[in-house]
């Protein structure tokens, strides 16, 4: 059914009211789980002092720190930290299944992914990187984080079970971070990784799942259906499916982890019942090396 302009406007206004709350939560999470703005910890052209090192062939007289050198018999160069802006692209799946939550006390997978995505963006922006959501131009600064928060909150859900960013948008020198449940057809994700590897693009994939999807606590008669409703399975003995389901989930994770490793990427998992700081620290550690 087509929605009217008034209905679309009302949805957009309602979505934007959630931006301040998301920004505040993301700022708190980023501050608690990451070290904040910093240099790249290697010699470069930044402003901050990093280390003294012995002068080597090729160092000019201008690069010698004569005050430090006067205190010894050797000559020393004052290195500064590199502050080279990199480009990070963040993508959060809009597939219908991301709306799932197994309990009212837990966030939807989409809400947790949005929080982690924006907190990671704030941390990367704080370290001087250019950041964007997939499909947008990477920029620096606080305003960019606000743009990303608005875009995440205002997104409309897709009535499909698989969603991936267009591989054609990959560019050399980027780092890409993907948030999804990766429970649908794995072929698009595998193809994306293969193309990324061809461009030399590195990144991370975070599988966000609800505890019910991790442990399969169902029993008795249950009607299972995908987020879009296209796929359905009716059973009278859900408990009898648990072992096979958990085995399939483990196989899927192993396949994605192996494909990520081959592409030079990282694959991780996150349970929405677990505090988000753990996932953010993992993302930060693998991206910052």
From TrEMBL:
Origin species: Paracoccus broussonetiae subsp. drimophilus
InterPro entries attached to this UniProt entry: DUF58 (IPR002881)
Domain DUF58, residue spans: 51-254
Phylogenetic placement of the source organism: Bacteria, Pseudomonadati, Pseudomonadota, Alphaproteobacteria, Rhodobacterales
Protein name stated in the entry: DUF58 domain-containing protein
One Pfam assignment: DUF58
């Amino acid at each position: 059914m087509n929605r009217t302009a008034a209905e679309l406007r009302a949805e957009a206004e309602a979505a934007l009211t959630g931006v301040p709350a998301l920004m505040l939560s993301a700022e708190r999470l980023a501050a608690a789980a990451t070290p904040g703005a910093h240099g790249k910890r290697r010699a470069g052209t930044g402003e901050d002092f990093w280390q003294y090192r012995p002068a080597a062939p090729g160092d000019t007289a201008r690069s010698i720190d004569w005050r430090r050198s006067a205190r010894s018999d050797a000559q020393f160069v004052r290195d500064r930290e590199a502050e080279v802006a990199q480009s990070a692209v963040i993508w959060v799946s809009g597939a219908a299944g991301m709306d799932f939550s197994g309990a009212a006390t837990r966030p939807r997978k989409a809400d947790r992914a949005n929080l982690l995505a924006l907190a990671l963006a704030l941390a990367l922006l704080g370290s001087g990187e250019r950041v964007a959501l997939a499909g947008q131009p990477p920029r620096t600064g606080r305003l960019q984080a606000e743009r990303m928060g608005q875009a995440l909150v205002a997104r409309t859900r897709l009535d499909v079970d698989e969603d991936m960013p267009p591989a054609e948008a990959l560019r050399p020198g980027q780092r890409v971070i993907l948030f999804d449940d990766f429970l649908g057809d794995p072929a698009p994700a595998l193809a994306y990784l293969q193309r990324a590897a061809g461009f030399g693009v590195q990144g991370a994939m975070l599988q966000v799942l609800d505890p019910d999807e991790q442990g399969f606590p169902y029993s008795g008669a249950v009607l299972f259906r995908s987020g879009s409703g296209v796929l359905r399975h009716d059973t009278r003995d859900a408990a009898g499916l648990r072992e096979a389901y958990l085995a399939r989930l483990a196989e899927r994770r192993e396949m994605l982890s192996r494909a990520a490793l081959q592409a030079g990427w990282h694959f991780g998992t996150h349970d929405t019942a677990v505090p988000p700081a753990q996932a953010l620290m993992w993302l930060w550690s693998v991206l910052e090396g």
